[in-house]
């Protein structure tokens, strides 16, 4: 979560740096070597080294089953940019990254606002009574593994035995009898987005409730004295004060939407009708472990990494640009 | 930060102003609408879970004949079959082994590394910090192909120790990143006092500094548990031997069989078996859990 909010790197602290001029005693060197050096070496072998290798493999035509491979330069990347299926997957991922974070954050922020400042407006700002029930229940999905969330909803949306169609036909909407939500091009993607959003709203609602409760009450009191209504207070006090939390949530949810592999595995493992829910990650997985084209799959991985970094950069940039005035 | 006296905040005022002045009409509308919207959302959350629970007691025939009907007999058949025939029992055991081992390991390695990095900077520790940050930024999918061969060459492919190693390695950067500010915020004077009293580096760390970072440790342990319990890509790609499957892979089998030979009663029972343990723990500890998660994250 706070994953993307960079804290100051070690050297920044002046106090500690001054102490550094004294040479580290041997016992301390051993301590640092064991506590930091060993775990870091382990991490380097299993995480950093594969990352570096991926860049190298992406420039080769390695099929995985042969020991030898040739360097083919950027040929894999050129092929990717002409591969209609991969480009379709890229578009699907971008759509997910555009919609999922926005809807999740808007919904969880709205629910959090209702819980925290939905109470009476005479006297001090106060939360809604008996609201802990909502808070506890909304968090449920976060404790359920994503693959199981996908399974539950693929059953819910099942054309003949699912609850959704049973309820809709139950209230007289007969056109939904045996309607295949996940099998129609127009509904497969929206339904998939809904499932992902369902899984995360509760978690971010809890985060936002904590963030809003951390806002000094004086700010709300002052805004009220100035005659601000609820809506105005939400936009003028709450939103600016939880800005950093929103940014973190945006990046985190965006990364998740660019992945989305596990949800697709449960909802539409083969890419959905006319590849309408195919993601880059699914394409990558199949290219590597079904077709054995490891060079090409690595190029897809690099492409995904670049898109992820660009997404994070855009979020930071937008946040900085819109902050402007009050700095 | 976490230790400072909290200022008066919007959430606290419930206690400060208990005066029950009659709410104005507009107020009551807002309150009522808020309750309605929140109740609606709660229903959307709970309804699928209740439906899954009820369906887990039905036979496959009943499930297909009417999604709305209640089960006719309450028997444990589906649960027994899911546990034995669909091997959910075995997968659950594998999951518990893998997640427990990797959680313990990553907490030890992560806490030690974060502490060392925060307290004893050396030339190059900035680079180490950014390399750890890099592991957080790049998607696991970038590493998955080479990782497959790293494990294969080490003879760890399709084994539980191999899976544990990758779980630890990929949970490591977030753990360090999360704990680093906690150790950074601890007063140096206390560590120095402990050292003056004769405690070495190891004792200072384990008995003095580590307990003080407890709020951060609890929060990241919960995050890591949920993250590892949820993990899907790593086992699916690196652990394809069926007897070593973890729970998420066992559940994915139901999805990949998609309608053909699926026993839906077993599927629903397996879903309930997967959800209930964590959900029960959550319900009983939700106050502390949500408290430490948000406290840790907003730091």
From TrEMBL, chain A:
UniProt subcellular location: Cell membrane
Keyword Membrane: yes
Coiled-coil positions: none
Organism encoding this protein: Knoellia koreensis
Keywords, sorted A to Z: Cell membrane, Membrane, Transmembrane, Transmembrane helix, Transport
A GO CC term assigned to this protein in UniProt: plasma membrane
Membrane topology, from the record: Multi-pass membrane protein
Pfam families cross-referenced by the UniProt entry: BPD_transp_1
Broad class of the protein's primary localization: membrane
Occurrences of domain ABC transmembrane type-1 (ranges): 90-315
Family to which this protein belongs: Belongs to the binding-protein-dependent transport system permease family.
Record's protein name: Sugar ABC transporter permease
Top-level taxon: Bacteria
InterPro entries in UniProt: ABC_transporter_permease (IPR051393), MetI-like (IPR000515), MetI-like_sf (IPR035906)
UniProt record, GO biological process: transmembrane transport
Spans through the membrane: 30-52, 94-120, 132-153, 191-212, 249-266, 294-318
Keyword hit for Transferase: no
CDD domains referenced in this protein's UniProt entry, alphabetically: TM_PBP2
From TrEMBL, chain B:
Classification via CDD domains: TM_PBP2 (cd06261)
Domain ABC transmembrane type-1, chain residue ranges per copy: 92-285
Keyword Transmembrane helix: yes
UniProt xrefs under SUPFAM superfamilies: MetI-like
UniProt-annotated location(s): Cell membrane
GO biological process, one term: transmembrane transport
Entry GO CC: plasma membrane
Pfam families for the chain: BPD_transp_1 (PF00528)
Family: Belongs to the binding-protein-dependent transport system permease family.
PANTHER family assigned to the protein according to its UniProt record, in alphabetical order: ABC TRANSPORTER PERMEASE PROTEIN MG189-RELATED-RELATED (PTHR43744), SN-GLYCEROL-3-PHOSPHATE TRANSPORT SYSTEM PERMEASE PROTEIN UGPE (PTHR43744:SF8)
Protein name according to UniProt: Carbohydrate ABC transporter permease
């Amino acid at each position: 979560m706070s994953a993307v909010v960079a804290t100051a790197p070690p050297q920044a602290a002046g106090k500690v740096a001054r102490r550094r001029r004294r040479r580290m005693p041997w016992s301390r060197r051993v301590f640092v070597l064991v506590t930091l050096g060993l775990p870091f070496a382990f991490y380097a072998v299993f995480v950093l080294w594969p990352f570096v290798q991926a860049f190298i493999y992406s420039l080769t035509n390695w099929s995985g089953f042969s020991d030898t491979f040739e360097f083919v330069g950027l040929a894999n990347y050129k092929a990717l940019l002409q591969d209609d299926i991969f480009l379709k997957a890229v578009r699907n991922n971008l759509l997910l990254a555009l919609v999922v974070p926005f809807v999740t954050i808007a919904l969880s922020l709205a629910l959090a606002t209702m819980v925290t400042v939905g109470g009476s407006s005479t006297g001090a700002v106060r939360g809604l009574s008996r609201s802990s029930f909502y808070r506890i229940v909304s968090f449920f999905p976060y404790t359920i593994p994503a693959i199981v969330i996908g399974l539950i909803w693929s059953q819910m949306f099942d054309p003949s035995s699912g609850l959704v169609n049973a309820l809709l036909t139950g209230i007289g909407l007969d056109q939904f009898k045996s309607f295949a939500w996940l099998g129609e091009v127009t509904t497969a993607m929206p339904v998939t987005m809904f499932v992902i959003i369902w899984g995360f709203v509760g978690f971010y609602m809890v985060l936002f409730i904590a963030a809003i409760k951390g806002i000094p009450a004086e700010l709300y009191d002052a805004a009220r004295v100035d005659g601000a209504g609820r809506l105005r207070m939400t936009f003028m006090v709450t939103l600016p004060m939880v800005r950093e939390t929103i940014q973190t949530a945006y990046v985190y949810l965006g990364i998740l939407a660019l992945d989305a592999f596990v949800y697709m595995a449960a909802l539409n493992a083969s890419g959905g009708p006319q590849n309408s829910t195919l993601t880059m990650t699914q394409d990558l997985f199949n290219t590597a472990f079904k077709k054995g084209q490891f060079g090409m799959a690595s190029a897809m991985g690099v492409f995904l990494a670049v898109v992820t970094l660009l997404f994070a950069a855009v979020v930071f940039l937008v946040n900085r640009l819109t902050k402007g005035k009050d700095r | 930060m976490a230790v400072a006296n909290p200022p008066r905040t919007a959430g606290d005022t419930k206690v400060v102003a208990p005066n029950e002045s009659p709410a104005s009409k507009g107020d009551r509308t807002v309150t009522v609408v808020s309750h309605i919207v929140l109740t609606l959302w709660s229903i959307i959350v709970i309804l699928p879970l209740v439906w899954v629970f009820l369906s887990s007691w039905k036979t496959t025939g009943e499930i297909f004949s009417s999604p709305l009907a209640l089960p006719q007999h309450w028997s444990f058949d589906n649960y027994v079959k899911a546990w034995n025939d669909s091997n959910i029992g075995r997968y659950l055991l594998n999951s518990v082994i893998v997640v427990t081992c990797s959680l313990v390991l990553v907490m030890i390695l992560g806490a030690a590394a974060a502490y060392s990095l925060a307290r004893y900077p050396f030339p190059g520790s900035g680079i180490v910090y950014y390399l750890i940050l890099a592991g957080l930024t790049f998607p696991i999918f970038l590493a998955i192909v080479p990782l497959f061969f790293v494990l294969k060459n080490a003879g760890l492919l399709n084994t539980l120790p191999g899976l544990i190693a990758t779980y630890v390695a990929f949970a490591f950067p977030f753990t360090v990143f999360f704990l680093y500010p906690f150790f950074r915020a601890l007063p140096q004077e206390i560590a120095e006092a402990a050292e003056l009293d004769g405690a070495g580096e190891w004792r200072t760390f384990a008995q003095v500094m580590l307990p003080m970072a407890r709020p951060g440790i609890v929060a990241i342990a919960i995050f890591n548990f949920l993250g590892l319990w949820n993990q899907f890509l790593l086992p699916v790609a690196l652990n394809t031997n069926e007897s070593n499957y973890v729970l998420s892979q066992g559940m994915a089998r139901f999805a990949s069989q998609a309608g053909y030979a699926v026993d839906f009663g077993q599927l629903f029972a397996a879903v309930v078996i997967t959800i209930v343990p964590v959900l029960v723990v959550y319900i009983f500890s939700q106050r502390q859990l949500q408290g430490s998660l948000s406290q840790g994250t907003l730091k």
